[in-house]
Records
---
Amino acid sequence: MSTDYQQAREALGMRLRELRFSSPGCRLTGEQLAGRYGWNKSKVSRLENGRQTPTADDLRKWAEACGQPGAYGELLARLRGFESHIRSWRRQLASGHKPVQDTHLGAHADASVFRGWESSMIFGILQTPDYARSIFTRYAELQRSPRDTEEAVRSRMKRQEALYDSSKRFHLILWESALHALICPPSVLAAQLDRLSGAVGLDTVELGIVPLSASLKIPPATAFWMYDDRQVIVENWHAELWIDDEVSVDTYLRTWRTLRESAVYGSDAHNLISSARRALNPRS
């Protein structure tokens, strides 16, 4: 968890404690507050000490219990401020995958130069509908989120229109393992690899692949996207990180450039894709 995020969460916790201590009439104890809503006794302490992120409903109840319902707007604004950088999947996927895809659609519309690194699956911007459908289904199962697979697929396909916008450029690097990952049926992966081969020829796309046999300067770890070298989006299992401070963005840019040194392009990249395609059906 980032230091800035934790500091903001601790600051919110201190504000919650202030409200509890200044309750009209008398000081509200943590035990009284927890008992009013049937919370675990330790929840009040975790929230006040910045060890747990409150929900909007937690904040509303807290303000009401402290006799200061007008403070809810301020508390919510604080929460939204630091959640804009760390966006938990639990909250983002409360209504399914389509809203998340729509958010990325908007971010893509505002940028011109994209850099991406992916080590485990094909970039969303290059996915076929069937491949994307498999990805959304698997993640909905993992995150136990609402199933809106078809709506999410349509939004992801809409984003791919940017590939044909001459004002945009996509500089993408894949680890070769992504070409072999069977997160979908073999027939779906085969069609996806065919689609990927076609992307090599797009004038808006520079697609590099880091071979499994390549010498690496750094481990091929977490996937990330960069928008105009000013914002980075990193996906973890629990959240998306939207990073825009200059020092961190520069770190990811150096990481991308370092990974690029091990990548192959053009016919060499095409050969790796073709080899992965043949492995799915040796007789073809």
---
Amino acid sequence: MTWKIADTQLQSRFIIGSSLYPSPQVMQKAIQSSGAEIVTVSLRRQAMEATNKNIFWQHLQELNVKLLPNTAGCYSVKEAVTTAQMAREVFGTHWIKLEVLGDEYNLQPHPIKLLEATKELIAQGFEIFPYTTDDLVIAEQLVESGCNILMPWAAPIGTGKGIINPYALNVLRQRLPDTVLIVDAGIGAPSHAAQAMEMGYDGALLNTAVAEAIDPVGMAKAFKLAIEAGRCAYDAGLIQQREMAKPSTPEIGKPFWHQ
């Protein structure tokens, strides 16, 4: 079943990153295995690879996917805005995954700077995919500023801890029913992605869990299946948890034995 993000109809709800792979060839095969139609890419990575005959860029072009450039590594509003403007020129898209970091230890987004950069870039015609925490107030402020999409973390980037605060992510889904929510960062196992999808999240973005796996191609497929299963379960309607057991076999017509 197709779904819409920004101005694009998609089949896959898996957004995959393009860094950390052992080689461009493995990256290409993993992305193909994932079925993802959107791939995140760093402007800094593109600039670095330009000195190596642009092999990285060539492999991405062959995939025929939609690129989502990001402002990874930016710690100031000015740096993030400038990087976004450059990415629009390099990649030919008004989409930008906006990252404005506030802490070097856990790479947590800086909420005030993120909001400021968001407002500035929206005024310049960008479609913002903001990387944020699971804080409801900041999320609401981003939506009020014009964001149609939010990308709250499950856990700090690259930790693989999975969803450390299910309550907070559930609250975001309940309070922002009309906003596209993509869980981003901290996903370490396919089960983590499935959990987010079962909550009603619209998609999952991850990189490290695939790129640093022993078999990135196989892991990409595992995440693909988990994301599909989680969303299918959400659409089908999960049963409510109960405190008491409920028999699956009715009591009426229950066989009995004579002594």
---
Amino acid sequence: MADSSWQHLRRETLAVRAAVPRSQYGENSEALYLTSGYVQPDAATSARRFGGEEDGYTYGRSGNPTVTSFEQRLAALEGAEACMATASGMSAIMLMCFSLLKAGDHVIISQSMFGSTLKLIGSEFGRFGVETSIVPQTDLAAWQAAIRPSTRLLFAETPTNPLGEVCDIAALAALAHNVGALLAVDNCFATPALQRPIELGADIVMHSGTKYLDGQGRVMAGALCAREQLVVEKFLPVQKNSGMVLSPFNAWVVLKGLETLDLRMQAQSALTLELAQWLEAHPAVARVYYPGLASHPQHELAMRQMNGLGGAVLSFDVKASSSEQARARAFHVLDQLQVLSLCTNLGDTKTLCTHPASTSHGKLTEAQRQAAGIGQGLVRVAVGLEHPQDVQDDLARGLNTLDTL
């Protein structure tokens, strides 16, 4: 849980200061505790700690000081009472669903969510009797119409991957709370540097720490931020029994990544806006998807929810006359890259490009992809920290030669 003594500190300070107390050695950089077990002072204390009657570390699956530092820091940044770290973003979603849902319960999710999220909740949990409705991301009436007496959870991702669709968090929170359900928000793209869903009414904030929280493409990590009661009573028991825990080393890496989160998100958002404007003017580009552009359908909402910045991910469609030609043209743009990385991750200091229809959303049916707006000519760009002209030159190498195909 977050330390109450941090309440008066601002976000930038919390990003470098929130952590467990220093050890007796007085280290300034947070310590990395690599251990699977902890020596107990006596049998009675051991019994109380294992019984949950007294705070204290017992076993790596139940807690670690380095992991706790990461949890406290992220909770403080999100304005949450508590945080539960997990091995990956998808394991965070798995933990949330296992903790909150049972057979017969109903979940509403956006059709624009990350492909693996759609498969996990819509298909895998369906095998255990959890029912799912998939609705258009920005259609509040569709979310309302999908609600049933058995609805327990609304789960939104904003902005979405890869089209950058933005939902009204406060409006969805009101819908959920009116029927006694919870609202969970995937805040991976915006991060707490740009957007704090709990302040807008969300109950749970989910993160893939693999992305911007780390910021340099080094490790896998995930997290759930929520009320202390929800974390302690719902998430913690399931995590202890399932073992969906974050390793201390990965926690330490992401903990240090959080120190530069605010600076990175500001810089990368500015670079992404510049690239989006350049792409929008390119004759080979049919459309650019980026919340920071005035042409984006939810631009005004995004600017209100995201501290006036659009984030660091954009997507664009290449011009094409058919789906087959679109795929070939998108592949051509990617195959001509010499500086940027053809890589499905995002949130790195290096600019990463990918073809969503054949990677992140490749396991969906064509109908599902079309419903989500993922065409074969779509290219996603997660902008890093290179000089903007070098990024443009590398993309232009493919865009400017599409007519040679």
---
Amino acid sequence: MLKFILIAVGVVLLTIVLVKIVDKFVPLKLKPFLSILLWVLIGYLGYQTYQSIYEPIKFNKIKKKRYAQVIESLKDIRDAQLAHKTVTGKFAQGFDGLIKFVDTAQFTITQRRDTSVLDVEMTKRYQVDMFKDEVIIDTLGFVSVKDSLFKNSDRYKTMMNVPVGKPGEKFKMQAGFLEQNGLNIPVFEASVKKDVILYDLDKDLLVQENQVVSVDGVNGDALKVGSMEEVKTNGNWPKTYGDNE
């Protein structure tokens, strides 16, 4: 905004100065020619002023649209990874294994029941029937991971591809374990650089976007979900782009 104000003030002042110079010092017969040049210059400066306003608006509009598409893909990756952890106890290392898992794996449908059974040892000790509480897990059936997460869609087969931005780019994905309190906890992270998503937009605005620190923006130089440094599976985008947890 400050840049726009300075440019606008500069255009106005320059126009006034040029008009006065032409009126005071230029011979009458040259005034028509110089007036044309003056109008051309004013038009150029006006265009530059317009561009200084329009470029950030255009950048933000395209950015939000592309971010929304990338975030949908990151959500699919997260859903598939969480399913993988539920079934196998860990996250998938790569997309090939994750896609194969979605194609073939099943969730087990269970039902928990609380019951009481005879405690043989306590009954012998006290010569009277003693009972203890137990939890019984009944298996009711199985359901396909693919049907649960993606229903009739096969978009999971291309979830490794960054849907917008620089052609042919893929998400970077890592998985492993993080030690906390003596336990190895599964973690994963999927990410793509903003430079990839916005590669063809204004470079100065892209530099600013990579340095964003804001509650309503995507902080840092990448869009990502999960973390290899913390135990979390949420994304780094604000709620305005949808659920990030």
